[in-house]
Amino acid sequence: MPSELADKYWEVGNAIVAFSVLQMLAFLYSLAKQDFREQIAKVFWWVVGAILASAIAYMAGVEVCYRAEMTLRTELTSTDSAAIVLGLTRWARLAIIGIYSLFGIGVLLFGKRHAWRLAKPR
């Protein structure tokens, strides 16, 4: 039973990362529309704050899943190759969330700096 529950935490960790990436891609895709950019410009710093807050929440979720999974996988020691791979996976998941969030903030800052003049309709 603990191994099956640990597998569920593994799946939830994957789902958190997938959701965070898809959410950021959908947000960035929405920036292609002028009216959406205008709305974002009105609450620019709130949006940046929301991206940071959600990234922190997603990272916390990944960390909780990792710790729960490792607690349930009592048969692993810290030197087992499976434990090492799980630890590296955790860092990769955290990095993916961080990179996508920073990229999204970077795109927003770039757009703000250039007065959202990109991709105007002709």
Overall description:
By secondary structure, the chain is mainly α. Helix content is 82%, strand content 0%. It has 4 helices and no strands. The protein has one domain (2-113). It has helices at residues 2-30, 34-42, 44-72, 81-113.
Mean pLDDT: 91
Q: Helical stretch count?
A: 4
Query: Could you tell me how far the N terminus lies from the C terminus, measured between alpha carbons in angstroms?
Result: 60 Å
Globular, elongated, flat, extended or rod-shaped: what is the shape?
Answer: elongated
List strands and helices in order, with pairings.
Blueprint lengths: L1 H29 L3 H9 L1 H29 L8 H33 L9
Helix pairs in contact: 1-3, 1-4, 3-4
Index terms:
single chain; 122 residues; mainly alpha; 4 helices; 0% strand; elongated
Task: Describe the structure concisely.
The protein contains four helices and no strands. It has 122 residues and is mainly alpha-helical.
